[in-house]
Amino acid sequence: MLDTCGREVRTLRLSVTAACDLRCRYCMSAEGFAQRGAPLSADELVAIATAAAKNGINKVRLTGGEPLLRPDIVDICARIAHVEGIRTLALTTNATRLAALAAPLAAAGVSRVNISLDSLDAECYRTLTRGGDIAAVLQGLEAALAAGFARVKLNCVLIGGVNDGEIGAFVALTRTKPVDVRFIELMPMGECAGWPAACFLSADEVLRRVPELTPLQSEGVAQRYRLPDGLGTVGLIRPMSNAFCGDCDRIRVTADGMLKPCLHGAEELDLRGLSGAALEARIALGISGKPAAHHLRDGGTDTDRGMSQIGG
Question: Lower CB density within 10 Å: C or N end of the chain?
Answer without folding.
Answer: N
